[in-house]
Amino acid sequence: MGSFSNSMDEFKKRVLKGDIIVAYQGLMNYFGYLKSHFRDEHPGYDVSGGTYFGYMDMTYFPIFTETLKKRGLKIALVFVYETFRFEVWLAAKNKKIQNEYRQIFTDSGWKKYHITAAGKEVDSILDSVLVEDPDFSDLDSLTKQIRKATQEFISDIEDFLSVHEN
Questions:
Q1: Phi, psi of 56, deg, nearest 5
Q2: In CA terms, which of 7, 87, 115, 152 is 20 to 30 Å from 15?
């Protein structure tokens, strides 16, 4: 990676070209739409939290269900810039709860979704790729893919938690 100054020169060129601004604004607008979609179409989901716009590392918003919320857990619907894909994460409100549930999933022999390794910069307990190569030319289909896979992820986790109470 080059120096900060060189990186800023490259960033300036791309911003002045205009495409990066249009793309970023489009992605932020789509995230707003997705959040509204989950709030309006899924009354059992609490989608009242703010959207984290990030530092071009990730953008996400949280989704809560009663089952998750009472345990200090949440779902994060995430766009990861480095891999340019949508993911869904099981996360916790703090590291203590995160580590506790990571251990519960690990001890159970869980294989359905990836269990993340503990670490200072790790925000998830479990993660799953929702859409590997998003097609932004067909937002209706993209939304359906994200919705279906997110619902399945939530259902699988809630089913697991109903059997593995702590």
A1: 60, 25
A2: 87
pTM: 0.92
d(CA 13, CA 64): 40
pLDDT digits (tens, 9 = 90+) for 55-109: 999 999 999 999 999 999 999 999 999 999 999 999 999 999 999 999 999 999 9
Residue 157 Cα distances to 47, 83, 113, angstroms: 18, 24, 9
Sheet containing 85-92, strands listed edge to edge, beginning at the edge strand earlier in sequence: 58-63, 73-80, 85-92, 124-131, 114-115
Extents of the domains making up the chain: 4-163
Instruction: Record the tokens describing residue 161, joined without a space.
Output: 């938690």
CA distances from 23 to 17, 29, 139 (A): 12, 10, 14
**Residue 1 pLDDT more than 80?**
no
Give the Cα separation of 37 and 71 in Å (integer): 25
